[in-house]
Each structure stands twice: as structure tokens, then as C-alpha cells.
Amino acid sequence: MDKQRINEIINVLDKLYPEAECSLDYKDPLQLLVSTQLAAQCTDARVNIVTKTLFKKYKNAEDFAHADLHELEEEIKSTGFYHNKAKNIINCCRMIINEFDGKVPKNLEDMLKLPGVGRKTANLVLSDIFGIPGVVIDTHAKRLSNLIGLTKNTDPEKIEYDLMKILPKEMWSKFCHQLVYHGRAVCKARKPDCGICELKTLCNYGKSDKTTKKKDLHR
Ligand code: SF4
After folding, report:
1. pLDDT digits (tens, 9 = 90+) for 158-179
2. Which of 3, 5, 30, 79 is least surrounded by CB atoms within 10 angstroms?
């Protein structure tokens, strides 16, 4: 990926989504950590509905650490995979209390020790809460990075490193939020709408897709 092309991609996404940010609702590091865990295989909109009530009952790591497993499972059931999510949230908060003085750790190494916390969650919390640059590879960022040609890898950790190499550090977090916005609005998982996409001439898939080109002639 040459520098000019990545700069143009950054400019297009910046123009389209200047205010791109995490769409989960949260008021503190722990809330974002819990919300991100709940968001696995679930929409942010659904998670926000669940956490609106959840965070009124569980106000801090202590509350989650002492939660009744079955009660918590019921409360988060609609986000899916609730057995694992509830168990991880309780164990994660126990570790935060026992090993990190009740506070969400501020570095990747410690974050990754927390049960249920992978690189996506860790990088999201570190960048959005603590301002530590991080590349956040969720399902949208993974799909779009491959389609556009920012990476040839499918493993999220390898994609993360590929993007770190080509993006300016100050753009790491925002760029990934912008990919999510674009993935929801235009480059949808079921069918990318290349015909109306402003990245089309900069995107490997958009440039090579013959159906798109035919369709564009009639727009
Ligand atoms: S041109 Fe098509 S594949 Fe490429 S980003 Fe746009 S919608 Fe997605």
C-alpha cells in the first residue's frame, strides 16, 4: 500500500465520518470494558439497551465481582453467549480487585490477563479511555481491511500489525471507528454497496468487481 493511497483513504473516511467514535454507551473504564465484552457477537445497540439497566445495579468492579452468576446471566441473556460472558465479567472484576487495586489496568499486557479480554477489547479501552493509541480490529475492520487491500491477513492480530505499519499512530483508533461506520453504512457484510462508495477507486474489491462497474454505468 503506497503512502498516497492510504492518505487518500484516510481523507475520504475523515470527510465521511469526522466524528466517528465508539457507539457503546459508557461512563467509565469498567463500563466500557464490560460493554465490549457483551458486544461480542452482538450489536452495540442491543448492548446499550442491556447496560442501561445493568449499570444501575452494578456500579463498580466490587458489584460485578460479587454478582450472582445466574442472576447476571439472566440480565445479559439477550446479548447471546451469556454463560461465558457472565462468568468472564465476574472473574474479570475479581482480578481487577485482587490484582489491580480495583482499577482497570492501563497497559496492554495487564489488560490481556483479564478473563474474557482479547486484543480488540484491550485496545479499545486503552485508546478510547486512556488515550493510548491502539488498532481495534472488530468484524467490520477485518472485513473492510481485506476488501480495500490494507492487508492480506485474516488473523485479527496480524491485521492489527499491518494497519499499525501503514497508518499514522494518531489515526489508529479513529480509523478503525471509521471503518466500523463505513461497514454499517455502505460496505455491508451481506453485500458491499460499491456503486455508491466513495472509496471505490481506492479499494481493491471496488476496482475489480465487474458487477459493480456494470451497475455504476446505470447510476
Ligand atoms: S468499494 Fe465496495 S468493497 Fe470497497 S469499501 Fe467500498 S463498498 Fe466496500
Report:
1. 999 999 999 999 999 999 999 9
2. 3
Mark which of 130, 156, 175 sits at the end of a domain.
130
> Which CATH number covers residue 142?
1.10.1670.10
Annotate 33-56 with DSSP letters as a single string. HHHHHHTTTS-HHHHHHHHHHHHH
56 is catalytic: no
Please confirm, yes or no, whether 120 is among the known catalytic residues: yes
With a 6 A CB cut-off, is 34 part of the ligand 1 pocket?
A: no
From the CA of 212, give the closest atom in ligand 1.
2
Task: Let me know if residue 37 belongs to a domain.
Answer: yes
Stated pTM of the model: 0.90
Instruction: State pLDDT tens for residues 54-95.
Output: 999 999 999 999 999 999 999 999 999 999 999 999 999 999
What region does 101 belong to: left with phi over 0, alpha with psi -120 to 50, or beta? left
Distance of CA 202 from the midpoint of ligand 1 (Å): 9
Residues 51 and 99 in one domain: yes
67, 90: one domain:
yes
Residues 164, 114 share a domain: no
The answer to whether the CB of 208 is under 6 A from ligand 1 is: no
- What is the number of domains present in the chain? 2
